[in-house]
Amino acid sequence: MSLAPSHPAQDIETLGVSRHTDLVTVISMYDADKGFAKVLRFVDMTEEGDIVYNDDFAERVAQFTKILDDASSLCTFNGLNFDIPFVQTQFKIPNATVQGWVLKTFDVLEMTRRGFGRTFNLNLLLQLNGFNHLKTGSGLEAVHQAQRGDWDELESYCLSDSRLTWEISSRDIIFCPEGYQWRKAHGGRSHDPDCVFRIDRTNFPDVSFSFGPLGQPASAAV
């Protein structure tokens, strides 16, 4: 019997944006329903200050892969466009394995980008859905943390992103900000309160989309 969480959120940090040359530094996974929170670090710093994959790299890749394989579903934010392709290239994950992950992944950003041409950051999504706690850093700061060898700070930031992704993805109704071009044309406003786009994910993977006035999310704000 697998002890892996059923619906974990996953987030990665890297040394840059090129999946062919930049290393994956840490990956976090979070599922409050299962009381599961884990961060795997894949790199160490040499005496010369270089960041390299650590001696336990293969073991940690296998551990990460098993968690995702065993999960009933996954949730990410930009994971289908960034995290999963990055991991596949760096960890040399077979296509068949990755396809299984993709088919069971709920990704708000990828869904709205592909279907409706909307892009927004995680903080904008959290704010619109009534969250009081937002991201604690940025991807660029995560690179600097790795370069300094601040592993505890890096792991804490990465896990926080997974937790926030899990919490927003667990909402029955998710309100989505307008796309970049709309916000640019409307003085940076995040949405039209009279016609907010929303996702009903109650029966994921069968989700529905609708427009209407902004209301309270189905579950209490964090």
Q: Which structural traits does this protein have?
A:
222 residues; alpha+beta; Nucleotidyltransferase, domain 5; three-stranded antiparallel sheet; 10 strands; globular; disordered N terminus
3D architecture notes:
The structure is a single chain. With 222 residues, this protein is an alpha+beta fold. It has a domain at 9-116 and 133-171: 2-Layer Sandwich (Nucleotidyltransferase, domain 5), CATH 3.30.420. It is built from 8 helices and 10 strands. It has helices spanning 57-70, 79-91, 95-103, 108-116, 122-128, 139-148, 151-169, 180-185, and strands at 9-14, 24-31, 36-41, 43-45, 51-53, 74-76, 105-107, 173-176, 196-203, 206-212. The strands form 4 sheets. It has a 3-stranded antiparallel β-sheet with strand order 1-2-3. Strands 8-9-10 form a 3-stranded antiparallel β-sheet, with no helix packed on it. The chain has a two-stranded antiparallel ribbon with strand order 4-5. Strand 9 and strand 10 form a beta hairpin. Helix 2 runs antiparallel to helix 3 (95-103) and helix 6 (139-148) runs antiparallel to helix 7 (151-169). The longest helix has 19 residues, at 151-169. It starts with 8 loop residues before the first strand and ends in a 10-residue tail after the last strand. Residues 1-5 and 217-222 have low confidence and may be disordered.
